[in-house]
């Protein structure tokens, strides 16, 4: 049976501060480090043995992957990094506190910026030093492909070709593949695999550090998908993610 495990990175410094992070390259908190280690322990307990893994260009995802693989004693496996698995780019929202932004503009407006399928936040100007064109890690990316802002639709459009051409063939070859990335890039994979509607994916929340397992038949049809762990605890974590940008 073929399996794909998705993990959203452990809690980051800006998760903890409730900021829009996007492509800003922030590290993990102590809690985030613990979440990554616990994810590795749980996967080891469940008997997972990966032969290849994928992650983004952002260190919160890279370090989560390292910590999980270290806990599983599988740090030797090949790891492929790609900007295509980066978080959704939040444009000019990056760095802003979600609650304070909701208090200023209203819950509905911020929810639209966070979760609208096809309405992106205001873009970062090219001359802004936060634009990815100014970062060394993206020097090999075609400049016109680097976003200054994204809606979830845009994140999915730059992600799915990489899924089809790189990740899916590795699942065909190795049976068990691990992907550690971000809330929105992983939601893009989930939407694609489960054929979810725009409305369904807007309401779907992925907690930090919780493995999400897909099982496929030989024709790559999804036969099961679930988070690993206590269902009630995971539901509570999902609700926390959903409520991040609401006014106090």
> End-to-end span in angstroms?
46 Å
- How many helices in DSSP terms? 9
Helix content range of the residues, please?
40-55%
Content of β-strand: 5-15%
Biggest sheet overview: 6 strands, mixed
> Taking strands numbered 1, 2, ... along the chain, how are they ordered across the largest sheet?
3-2-4-1-5-6
Q: Mean of residue pLDDT? A: 93
* Secondary structure: number of strands: 6
Rg, nearest Å: 17 Å
- Structural class by SSE content: alpha/beta
Q: What is the succession of H and E elements?
A: EHHEHEHHHEHHEEH
Question: Looking at the structure, what is the overall shape?
Answer: globular
Stretches where pLDDT is under 50 for at least 5 consecutive residues are none
Describe the structure.
The chain is α/β, with parallel strands linked by helices. The chain has 9 helices and 6 strands, in the order βααβαβαααβααββα. It has helices at residues 13-16, 30-45, 59-72, 98-105, 107-115, 152-174, 183-194, 198-202, 231-242; strands at residues 2-8, 52-55, 79-81, 176-181, 212-216, 222-227. It has a 6-stranded mixed sheet with strand order 3-2-4-1-5-6. Strand 5 and strand 6 form a beta hairpin. Helix 2 crosses helix 3, helix 4 crosses helix 5 (107-115) and helix 6 (152-174) crosses helix 7 (183-194). It is globular, with a radius of gyration of 17 Å. The chain starts with a strand and ends in a 6-residue tail after the last helix. The relative contact order is 0.21.
């Amino acid at each position: 049976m073929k399996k794909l495990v998705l993990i959203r990175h452990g809690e980051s410094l800006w998760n903890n501060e409730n900021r829009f992070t996007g492509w800003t390259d922030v590290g993990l908190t102590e809690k985030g480090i613990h979440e990554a280690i616990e994810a590795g322990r749980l996967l080891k307990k469940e008997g997972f043995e990966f032969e290849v893994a994928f992650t983004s260009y952002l260190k919160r995802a890279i370090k989560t992957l390292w910590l999980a693989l270290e806990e599983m004693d599988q740090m030797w496996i090949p790891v492929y990094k790609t900007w295509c698995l980066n978080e959704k780019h939040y444009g000019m929202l990056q760095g802003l506190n979600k609650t304070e932004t909701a208090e200023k503009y209203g819950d509905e407006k911020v929810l639209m910026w966070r979760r609208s399928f096809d309405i992106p936040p205001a873009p970062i100007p090219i001359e802004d030093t936060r634009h990815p064109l100014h970062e060394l890690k993206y020097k090999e990316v075609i400049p016109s492909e680097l976003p200054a802002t994204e809606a979830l639709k845009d994140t999915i459009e730059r992600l799915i070709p990489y899924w089809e051409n790189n990740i899916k063939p590795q699942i065909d070859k190795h049976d068990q593949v691990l992907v550690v990335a971000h809330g929105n890039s992983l939601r893009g994979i989930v939407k694609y695999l489960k054929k979810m509607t725009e409305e369904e994916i807007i309401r779907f929340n992925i907690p930090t550090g919780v493995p999400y397992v897909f099982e496929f038949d030989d024709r790559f049809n999804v036969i099961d998908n679930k988070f690993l762990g206590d269902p009630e605890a995971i539901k509570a974590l999902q609700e926390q993610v959903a409520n991040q940008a609401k006014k106090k």
